[in-house]
Amino acid sequence: MEKLIEVTNLAYTYRAGAGNAVTALSGINMEVYRGEFLAITGQNGSGKSTLARHFNGLLTPDRGEVFVEGIPITDKKRIADIRKAVGMVFQNPDNQLVSSIVEEDVAFGPENLGLAPEVIRNRVDWALKTLNIESLRLESPNNLSEGQKQLVAIAGVLAMKPECIVLDEPTAHLDPRSRREVLENVTRLNRNEGITIILLTHFMNEVVFCDRMIIMDMGKIIITGTPQDVFNKEADIVRLGLDFPVAARIASGLRAKGLILPESIIDAEELVNQLCLLK
Ligand SMILES: Nc1ncnc2c1ncn2[C@@H]1O[C@H](COP(=O)(O)OP(=O)(O)O)[C@@H](O)[C@H]1O
Ligand SMILES: [Mg+2]
């Protein structure tokens, strides 16, 4: 598998040298493979956002190195290439929406890439269609729900055709239904469009569809693996104050009541299938 992002021995401290310095990351080694869906989880303050901001050079390392497609993010001459390869979506879409009409908003990124008008138009059409929000094209973002705004923000990044989209807790402000809609769209971008996805989240239900997950604690990576592997390490998850996916919790409760269910159940569909097999 080809490495899209590589992080070696990364450390980062906010307000370095000051009395109130905070070491947010230390000794981080990781990679992101082209085409994968990676989830990064961990409690508030564990360093997820600080790490993610290194993936497109919003922050640069105090120690260690970060490479995107082999380019060090400290290479100032290549920062435009890095930002083109790795797009960012933040928690609050209001901070990302700049225009008063959805289609203009989605066009903003490609315009900044200096593309020809007809190319921009095609990309806006494609991004809106891919996320099933063509009907919002002429709306004002102010009139949209939080979930719709987040999809527009994602469309704006998608229209730049990045290799990779990093989403920093994109569903934190959303109701459960919008949350599901955003996640389904993100999963589809990965599976159908081949876009590498890095999803930062502390909702364990959101990681069940990822290929691989990383758990952070106090600025370090402490667990890496498939969701099935990770949720089998029950003691670790509890110790870290993290939650289990709902389906895994239900399966565990049913096992305690004597039902024979495999340990690997983490999503609802699989739970239903396994329960049906029992009959
Ligand atoms: N701009 C900042 N200035 C100072 N400290 C910060 C700043 N941003 C984050 N931190 C601190 O860095 C640590 C990691 O934070 P962060 O990367 O935001 O974690 P997460 O995204 O997992 O919640 C925390 O201790 C946090 O308080
Ligand atoms: Mg964060």
Write up what this structure looks like.
It contains ten helices and ten strands. The chain is of the alpha/beta class and 279 residues long. The model has no long low-confidence stretch (mean pLDDT 94). Strands 6-7-8-3-9-10 form a six-stranded mixed β-sheet. The chain has a single domain, classed as P-loop containing nucleotide triphosphate hydrolases (Rossmann fold). Helix 3 (102-112) crosses helix 4 (117-130), helix 3 runs parallel beside helix 5 (146-158) and helix 4 packs across helix 5. The termini are far apart.
Structure keywords:
6-stranded mixed beta sheet; alpha/beta; 10 helices; globular; binds magnesium ion; Rossmann fold; 4-stranded antiparallel beta sheet; binds adenosine-5'-diphosphate
Name the average pLDDT.
94
Largest sheet properties: 6 strands, mixed
Supply Rg: 20 Å
In terms of quaternary structure, the protein is: single chain
Bound molecules: adenosine-5'-diphosphate, magnesium ion
Quick one: overall form? globular
Brief description of this entry?
The protein is built from 10 helices and 10 strands.
